[in-house]
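> @MW can you paste both from yesterday?
MW: sure, first one:
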Amino acid sequence: MEFYKFNKDIGKKISKYNSDFIMSRIIQTNKTTNIGTMYLDKNGIVGYHHAAVPQLLLILNGEGYVRNEKDEYFKVESGDAVFWEKDEWHETKTEIGLTGIVIESEELTPALFMPLKK
């Protein structure tokens, strides 16, 4: 399990074409990629399971806790990204609610675009 940041602070200001915004790059793939939004309500949980393919969870809002095989929970919040390798066991839970984007693909290398969370 690895933790990354994709918040505004690590983004790049874009001004081309009279634009005015900040872009935080996340991932690039050449293989089939599944992307979905995950909504966990208060006390929601994604039960303990193995990742069928590499998975990247981007926390958009709320906060929660994640773990892998070690049974130690780590707090995650808006702007955090959690990466699990293929076959890695993991779980996500929240007390207050959490919304995230899940990216699944055989070809995920988040370290190419995002810095590790310190």
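MW: second:
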Amino acid sequence: MHELSIATAIIERADELARADGTDAVSTVTVRVGELAGVVPDALGFAFEVARDGTALAGAQLVVEQVPAQAWCGPCAEEFPVGMPPFFWCPRCDQPSNDLRCGRELEITGIEPSRASA
């Protein structure tokens, strides 16, 4: 389960960012996870709960924003959903696309300090 190593990295990075901001406790970490990132959001949430124990994020909640995969069709100038498993053919003009616009994200987008440390 590689989600545990991802959760550990999120916790370490969120802790670094919080401390750089002068915060020693975090209540919420928000991450964006793309549909094609190879991460199972429920497994990431479980791994986060396990990995946060004994850290500055021990009481923190993980909020996962799922990002659907979208590709761009040049001939149509149209964005379309790729889906899972991914299908990179434009549904409008039936041409292949190699321009993935979103769906591979795995990023921290927000860290909320605990009220006690704010």
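> thanks! The chain has a mean pLDDT of 93.
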